[in-house]
Amino acid sequence: MRIEEAELADVIVLIPQPFRDERGLFTRTFDAETFDDHLGRPGTAAAFVQDSQSRSVRGVVRGMHGRSGRSEAKLVRCANGAVHDVLIDIRPDSPTFGRSQAFRLDDEEFRHLYVPPGFLHGFQALTATADVCYRIDRPHDPAEDIGVAYDDADLGIDWPLPVTAVSARDAKAGSWRELLTRLH
Ligand SMILES: Cc1cn([C@H]2C[C@H](O)[C@@H](COP(=O)(O)OP(=O)(O)O[C@H]3O[C@@H](C)C(=O)[C@@H](O)[C@H]3O)O2)c(=O)[nH]c1=O
């Protein structure tokens, strides 16, 4: 498993090496020792306490979601299909504050993102169905959900496909400007 630094500070991309043969493939999707060694923080991998999976149909957008308080660290990968995944750094002290970066996550390369606390995250499903798997380092608490509209004009996220569906929560999410007033 290789590890690359993303453009956004502290985000890393874990890149596995799938083994393919006539049966299909085998891939390690995560290696705690490699991950902890890269971060230089033993025990970080062991902190992931909840694993979740969502399935989305083509064109669906989920996002942009974050978490208030201590926020949460997240590992994100696409186990089936492909998604256009977007991160926004909302840490006021970060050198990449306010910047976004997009990644293709799919079931060919199995790129796996490590997203530290303090980011907004969202994605669009690019295939008939796309399964996204998450691991988070704190139990989910809906009271700490924060969000920004996926189509916020100031963010200007370039979703590759027409948006076919979003959740009721995402449809009424606030603006990036509104969130900025709460971050400073
Ligand atoms: C996110 C989450 C939701 N749920 C529940 C709440 C709700 O009843 C149902 C569906 O939740 P949502 O509509 O919020 O799911 P969704 O819109 O897919 O939310 C996810 O979006 C992506 C972009 C992320 O980054 C994730 O962290 C998460 O916020 O699942 C959990 O039990 N645990 C969780 O960790």
Rg over C-alpha atoms, rounded to the nearest angstrom: 16 Å
Number of strands: 13
Q: Order of SSEs, N→C? A: EEEEHEEEEEEEEEHH
Bound molecules: dtdp-4-keto-L-rhamnose
Low-confidence stretches: none
Question: What is the helix content?
Answer: 10-25%
CATH homology-level superfamily:
Jelly Rolls
The DSSP helix count reads 3
Shape: globular
- Domain count: the total is 1
The CATH topology comes to Jelly Rolls
Pfam families: dTDP_sugar_isom
EC number: 5.1.3.13
Function: Catalyzes the epimerization of the C3' and C5'positions of dTDP-6-deoxy-D-xylo-4-hexulose, forming dTDP-6-deoxy-L-lyxo-4-hexulose.
GO cellular component, one term: cytosol
Quick tags:
184 residues; 11% helix; binds dtdp-4-keto-L-rhamnose; dTDP-4-dehydrorhamnose 3,5-epimerase activity; mainly beta; 13 strands; 5-stranded antiparallel β-sheet; globular; 6-stranded antiparallel β-sheet; 3 helices; Jelly Rolls
Give a quick summary of the entry.
One of its GO terms (biological process) is polysaccharide biosynthetic process. It is an enzyme of class 5 (isomerase). It is built from 3 helices and 13 strands.
